Predict the structure.
Amino acid sequence: MSTALGQLRGALIEAWLALRTRRRRALIAATGVALSAAMLSCAVVITDGLGGGFPRAVKAADLGDLIVRFKQQRAAQVVRRIAALPDLSGYALRTEVTQATFAYRGHSTTKGVAEVVGSGRRQGYAIVAGHNLRGTGHEVVIEQGLATAWHIKLGDIIYVRYLAPERVVGVAEGPDDVGYPLAAPRIYLSRAAIDAQLGRDPDPEVNFAEIWLRNPRYLNEVLVQARDESFGLQDLQFATRSGVRVLIHEAAGIVIDLLVALSVIALATAAVMLASSSKAEVQRRLRAIGIRRAVGASRTHVTLTQAVEAMIVTIPAATLGTFVGWIATYGPGNRLLALLNEPGPGSALALPLLASWLASVAIPVAGAAWPAWTAGGRAVISLLRGADVKRRRASSRSWPRRMRGHSNGGGGLTGLGARLVAARPARLVATSTMLACSTAFILLMIALAATLSSLETDPQELGKHYELTASLPPSYAPQVARIPGVQAAEPRYELHAADGYALGEIVDVIAYPRDHTLFEAPPLASGQRLRGDGQAEVGVGLANALGLAPGSPLLLALPSGRELRLRVSGTVSSLDEEGLVAYVPAAALLAADPSAPSQIAVLLKPGANQTAVSAALTRLGAAPQAAAGAVERGAPLVAVLKTILRAVAIVDGLVCIYALTQACALTVQERRRTVAVLRACGAGAGAVRRLLLGAVLALVAPAALIGVLLELLLLGPALSQLAASYATLQLRASALEILATVLGLALAGLMTIWWVARSAVRESVVTGLAS
């Protein structure tokens, strides 16, 4: 034991003294470890946070295995149907009231959802603050997203139409749907408390059932039985845990996969760089290792010294990098999870982060120890000679010719630099792969961020051309059109209808008296624009839900109680209402529902003053509003995603710069004698920079080409496909974005050339020749 401690103490002293003599190289190695650890930490936080959010939410809320929505029926009838199901463990009934009105301190909505829950242990939502409903008094539990958006605290009073002021006693997460503002705001009320206010109903009407099974493996069989036992229940909609998860996490899946893949590549590249650096450092210290071996130092001691030296550098660097990656993504990740009605990982993240930290430490240490172990096994006389990296005889005879080429213009130096990098194929492949994947990922994130910004701020991104709406009767349209700066004005009718196929889909119906494409022209996905009073254009989301195609009949049940029968002329790409939209002729809509609500859509002339037009509309008695972006309610989600993308892009970019710089620095370090010979023959800093230019081009040129093709042909189309059920989004990087990214790579290469060349010429020629 004492011998082992003595060896460790001796190795620690030697390692510390060695690091003091090469602080600069130790700092470079520490930077690489910190960056790779930060990248890996980002991947762990996002992967464990988003990937594990839904299972955590299901466990916390005890979400049912089967969720059923239907047209309101008496609870007794629903209970009889549920009781006939096999493998039943329990159930909970609710009354889900949509289009509910509630308000709080300047905030209000008429599109809220009020869940009236009964008594029972299982409710299908989790309390994250305060306590659950107790069935007495005027109490309400609100959704976490609503509490955050409206700044509601426990004990505050919220006003619900038809009820007395309700006191907020709890904040909940319901994993069966995303949170506000991505979805309608949701509150939970106690049936006992409602009965106390409005009178008791011994057999209330319900329209929502949550069902738990003894063995979820039999879910498919229970679904078949549920459909058979549904006689008397109308507008049935079934949802399972897996279905809810796919709906909520579809878009997050590829982002997680890309981030994990990129982080693994970053870690592997950093490992190759650090291992190569350690190998080059061992080559430089062969004579010192030989002297230690000659005076009796064992191979194990030499290896232990190198490993301890690496640990001294790696442990604090990996700790810092892991902390930076965690702090950069943990907060935004939790905000994203809150929008999805899912809890954050909390302390459960400690173990994955510890594993990532251990990987960030173990890989560089192993990469440093192995070259020392290999060198320690060589003959002492060979070590004392200080044998350098192997060189071909032909190469040594060709140096004079290459140096003459330098004197004739220097073109040969650029090629020589490329050949020096190519002499290490494993390092070349690792670095180029890292740069290519990082380039593709950065291009994808730039395209995604640009698309999100456009959808959030630009109503015309998906075909919404009008800039303002005015709450005026249709007869005011000619008067509005005469306002200076207005190009066109036309009544815009909009209401929510139900599909007439007993599937319960709510459809956003939009109508214009004439050609709607002047005001709204979402991209046509198939078919043609509507012509005549008997046709309709439907969103891709609605077409997928109902199995519609051009030529299919469309049946809509209007709030007036009448039906609107049309034929689908084409499908359009729209993100509004998740693509559940239908553009219909105004004449057909008004014939079925003369009281359809309307406003006037206002299209401005190019360069018109929107403020002046709004003031003129106000003088007419209107309440003008600016047209909203396609995902206006998703603005918080867009902001969080931008924050995450920005953090990952910064770390990714720094890893790129490090990999490029380290590859060039290692090439110069391994070929110190070559550089010294060039300088001894009269070459200056410019010649070294031309040599490094060839090395950088050999690394960056193929990486840039592969990265651009990877984004254009694979990553961009793959991510676009995820939104295909709602809209056609082009996430391929534009020419300007590609140019900016390539210029960024070029700038990183120029910085690398300047920095490495500056370091190389600082070393004396004699020292380089003696290496």
Remarks:
- The chain is about 55% helix and 20% strand.
- The longest strand covers residues 88-104.
- The radius of gyration is 34 Å.
- The chain has a mean pLDDT of 79.
